[in-house]
Write a structure and sequence with these properties.
It is built from twelve helices and 17 strands. By secondary structure, it is an alpha/beta fold.
Amino acid sequence: MAANYPLSSTPSLQDQFIGRKLTDLPTPSVILDRSLIKKNCTAMLQVCERLGVGFRAHVKSHKTLELSKMMVGDGREGSPAQFIVSTIAEAENLVEYVRAEQERGREASILYGVPVPQGAIPRLITLASSLAPSSINVIIDNEDAFTRFHDTLTFHPAFAPEKKIGVFVKIDTGYQRAGIVTSSPQFKPLVDAILAKDASKGGQGAVLLKGFYSHFGHSYAGNSEDDAASGLIDELLGLEVAAQAVPEEKRKGLVLSIGATPTATAAQNMLSGNSPRVDEFHVVLARLKEQYVVELHAGVYPLLDCQQVATHARPAEGEAREGFQPLNKDSIAIRMLVEITSVYTEREKPEALVSAGSLVMGREPCKSYPGWGIVTGTLGNSKTTSVYDERGEKTGWIVGRISQEHGILTWKGDRSKCNELAIGDKVEVWPNHACVAGAGLGWYLIVDSEQGGHEVVDVWPRWRGW
């Protein structure tokens, strides 16, 4: 339970850190830029509003209440506050906010975004008991799992039948992690089993079929705006096929939830008219909206990271505007603050030891370069401003090797352009994958580039536990 993993006191953390300069902070630390986060969140909400689709915010990347609120537009009138979680602890930390939003008249819900383990059901029942009916939703991709889930609900003494639990059927649209393919002989029986228990469609059960869900995780392998646009359209078409398993008279209002940050944010390209598939996208979307509720979902887009930039899912250049934020390193809102603890100028290539390894930065690769993070060049005693650009000169410091508690910065490119580093310097690193970076730390230190970005303006505790 979330109560088993108490968070550090926010007032105490604020007393310790607010007002401190970045160069005075302990290392390793995780730095978030509030201004960049707000811009990334706002663009996502704006594009959904202009397209007339819903949005569901995945909170696993950051696990904070503060950023969760920004993702759904805290206080935003007329738009729901819909969330996805990857752990029950995340849902437990969100439930008070969701209940408060419901009490003020806002639609709000939580989707447990992985096929539900049987052991999690009692905690989900507890969450459902304090919220409006069908505010808690689960993902199902297997008939036997659904039957077990429904039986546990029905016979659990704490479950109130009027609360209902929403069910999304997870469709595998090519990622091959979780989900069922629509061509499977087990797909139609699964949908039929849920409909037989769906209280809103004449069934006698404790569930409601909310719709169909796809996570296009393999979109991380994309390399262009066209790749991302194709993934977005493929997901829509894939869920349209899935919905055909429901009798036509029962399809109205079903939710088709699609996404992953590259495909979901590719919707921003559909407002510009630059993508060759813009017309096709709008035709497909208009057709689906006649019968279904189309919903985008994404999680890492407020923070971004090197993996996301490497997808080139949106233009890297161009002015930010309503419904659009450029996708480049300058939009990455998360940075790892580390300290130089040793330097090795005598090696074949200059190297330096830093005070952070895989427990801070993660160990996930990025397809666009051979390292585990890219040094931003914004701190330290650098004599030049060379920052590694995988599409440019490929000159700069990267995290070339990584251990549990330490990392090795390696200079790439012309040695004569090397930014000299000294023991005691502090540098910032863009991580490969924001969802993993900082997972071992208890809080984020917040700066704001619109206020200079050089000192801490807030602290956001990070949820822990499962």
